[in-house]
Amino acid sequence: MSPILVAQGVQKSFGAVTAASDVNLSFEPGAVAGLIGANGAGKTTFLNMVTGYLRPDSGSIRFDGRELTGHTPREITGFGICRSFQIPQLFHSLSVRENLLVAEGIAAAERVEEATDAVLEHFGLAQYAAQYAGLLPEGIRKLLDVAMALVARPKVLLLDEPTSGVAADEKFGIMDLVMGAVRGQGVTVLFVEHDMDIVSRYAARVVAFYDGRVIADGAPDRVLGDTEVRRYVIGEEAHAAA
Amino acid sequence: MSNILAVLFDGVVYSSWLFLMAAGLTLIYGVMKILNIAHGSLYALGGYTAATIAGAWLAAGHAAVGSFAMLVVAALLVGLVMGPLLERGLLKWMYGKNEVVLLLVTYAAFLILEDAIKLIWGVESKLLPEPYSLPGNFQIGTLAYPVYNLLLIAVAVIVGTALAWALYRTRQGKLLLAVIHDREVSAAMGINVNRVYLVTFTVGSMLAGLGGALTAPMIAVSPGIGVEVIVLSFAVVVVGGLGSLGGAALGALMVGIVRSLAVRYWPEAELFTIYLVMAMVLIARPKGLFSAPEARRI
Amino acid sequence: MRDRTVPALAIACAALLAAAPLAPQWLVFLLALALAKGMVVLGLVLLMRTGLVSFGQGLYFGLGAYAAALLAHRGGIADAALMIVAGAACAAAVAAVLGLLLARYREIFFAMLSLAFSMILYGALVKSSALGSTDGFNLHAKGFAGIALAAGTERRLFYAVSVVVVFAVAWLLHRYLASHWGRLSAAIRDNELRVEYLGASVYRVVYVNYVAAGALAGTGGAFAALAVGHVDPETAYWTTSGEFVFIAILGGTGNVLAPFLSAALFEGLRTVANQYAPNVWQMTLGLAMLAIIMFLPGGLWTLLRRRGAP
Fold it and tell me: Going by fewer Cβ within 10 Å, which terminus of chain C is more open, N or C?
């Protein structure tokens, strides 16, 4: 199977800060990968470049053979790549139901109302349907944010810290719902995460960033056991064992 | 040749006047993120106050030269009274609301003040010709020019320099710049943002009052003089970039000279050209000539 | 919460139509003007739903009024129906062009740019002696859709026509706002970024809404010109635009009926104020606006709708 998403030689700097330094990554359809790294390591910048919010200084990002750089977020969504956000991006004065109706309407769903009800059902949001999105508890806001990203049935789903700010007992719940929604459809899922339990449970592959570079890429056990990753991402000091 | 000079000179005079108005407006926006429509009323108040106290001064038989000082006094009065009154009495309760809502609040204040002026001063025009005619004329080519206009330019230059120095060289000014840059962080750093707001609005009001006071001797001070001023000042401020003092100066010069050329060669288009300049600048530079950079949102 | 808007629209329409032959002349005039202005404000409601406040609807109001008047004055066509169409078309055409630029702007810039364009028209009108300069000129419509009118009945007929047109448009707007596009407009107001990320073009929606609002204002301008029988540059002045914004805020943007209620209230109050206290009219407006902003931000409509939706 040929890779569906390929980043080659991606470079991005903001003045003196290097957010991406010769990033080369390649993902197969259906892959589930966790992107880890300290704050400022370049994970979110990578997502922003894939989705067109930022433009790489150099390098290319290809989706299904098509070059993504230079396209707008709207166009890239149209190609089949959707994302959720670290800080939930919702329509605060609309109800939960209306938020989803908007998403379904844009995705030109056949039966907008039914589709919305199905989403509400699957994500356990039915009880919140009439509440204003701006007044929801954080965990529900996150859930809605992710649910909206799934409405357009993307081929690639990018999740930016899907469980951050969510109560400990709800984290696995969110991930179960998301992974359940895409099961069996060959959707490529990349998720940025700081919680290593989530990463080891759901990711088949882990990519570790540091200082704009990819310092490790492979099976979770190997990457999470890697010395550099332990120092720069997980934060363990090399001499702590002594 | 002297024609072009006269036109340019006219343009610079008009620019000076525009700058005084725009400077206060852009300062208030830069610090408080409020586009102050009541600026027009403050201008009118400056004119009326000047007419009243300078008129009283002259009527009491004092030296005519003192009437110039009275113009400045009028401006200070307007600033020191109206500034705190509007900021503490009204705006303070509205902070945190959306920018356009604040615009509407200042619009409401403008409407209230327009009628307040009518109630206090009545509807007849007030005239104060003496300061204008007193310094006499000078020659540009074949044209006789009032010296007063030179004074106007001088005042604008002095005020501009003083403001720039105060902003960039003094400690107080740097606090203002910090607040312009980021209000929340400034407050977190211990800057008394409320006091900065009060000072800014007072200084801005004084500048508007000064614009009105200096204009009083050139026109018939009557209800409604503040109305046209507002839109003109906005055009200049938007051209220069909201919150930029240098932008206000450059914008004032551009608008003033273009307008002057229009008045000379194509009078019907006078109002048209001013807004055309604004529209064209915005097409090329959507945020005005000098604008602050914006941070990433996601 | 059942939506009773459509029945309410129908009832109001019927009641106002009944007033056409029955009500005294001054009332017909006041209502005609309120309906015309309410139409402009409908456009504002649409824009405000999208998160934009235009301080320059006077541009289209003036264009509609002058286009209608010029058709009679210069074009020799004194048919009110054509004049109304001319007003709407002219305004829509200009909005279609200006909208290309303005749809890129938001917040203060949108407000001030729209103001600037209206002032460009004002300036052009004032300096144009051919169009009567600040005095403007009168217009007389002698027929409607080919039917010649008996003297004395024109105003009542134009009023009746405006009732029908206005309520038809209000009904259409109500349906639009309840549709996907209406929801999308509100979504844009709340979070443009997310709308783009969901795959919709914010620019396109804003543009369409802007042109619609312009067309509405132009139609209102034509109706106003017919009601008053006179056009002058004041229609494009920024204070006129300010009035429309005031009426929008006074009524609130929660329902298509609100603009007409507050426009009627506004015209009624203005008539009274001009009679008894002309020198405090602006002050009253200002105080009322502050009161609404501080205590009733959703406008008077929220008083009618206790369990309010946004």
Answer: N
Query: Which chain C residues are Cβ-neighbours of A101 within 8 angstroms?
Result: 180, 183
Is C303 part of any domain?
no
Rounded to a whole number of angstroms, the distance from the CA of C115 to the nearest CA of chain A is: 28
**Predicted local confidence at residue A131, as pLDDT:** 94
pLDDT by residue (tens digit) across A145-184?
Answer: 999 999 999 999 999 999 988 888 889 999 999 999 998 8
User: In chain C, positions 183-202, which contact chain B (CB-CB < 8 Å)?
Assistant: 193
Token code pair at residue B253: 């010069």
| Binary contact (B231, C120; C-beta < 8 A) | no
Q: Is the pLDDT of residue C276 over 70?
A: yes
* Residue B32 confidence class, pLDDT cut points 50, 70, 90: confident
For residue C150, tell me if it sits in a domain: yes
Distances in whole angstroms, Cα of residue B23 to Cα of each of B78, C107, C250: 16, 21, 33
Residue B135 pLDDT exceeds 80: no
Sign of CA dihedral C284, C290, C296, C302: positive
Residue spans per domain, chain A:
30-56+66-208+217-234
Domains of chain B, each with CATH number or no CATH: 2-284 (1.10.3470)
pLDDT in tens, B223-278: 888 887 888 888 898 888 888 888 899 999 998 898 888 888 887 777 778 878 88
Its CATH class, for the domain covering A30-56+66-208+217-234, is: alpha beta
Ordered DSSP codes for B91-119: GGGGTTS-HHHHHHHHHHHHHHHHHHHHH
pLDDT surpassing 50 at residue B213: yes
At position B281, the amino acid (one-letter code) is: V
8 Å CB contact of C109 and B235: no
Greatest distance between any 2 Cα atoms in chain B: 68
**Long-range contacts made by residues A223-231, C-beta under 8 angstroms, separation at least 24?**
A223/A36, A224/A196, A224/A199, A224/A200, A229/A36
Q: Which bin fits C199, alpha (ψ -120 to 50), beta or left (φ > 0)? A: left
CA-CA-CA-CA dihedral for C105, C107, C109, C115, to nearest 10: 110
Q: Per the structure, how many domains does chain C have?
A: 1
Interface test with A, best of C198, C201, C202, C205 (most A CBs within 10 A): C198
In 3D, which of A217, A230, A242 has the Cα closest to residue A33?
A217
Interchain contact B235–C (C-beta under 8 A) = yes
Asked if B100's CB is within 8 angstroms of C108's CB, the reply is: yes
C12 within some domain: no
pLDDT bin (cut points 50, 70, 90) of residue C108 is confident
* Closest chain A residue to B295, measured at CA: A14
Residue B143, φ and ψ in degrees, nearest 5: -95, 140
Structural domain contains residue C6: no
Domain of C228? 35-240
Neighbours of chain A (3+ CB pairs under 8 A): B, C
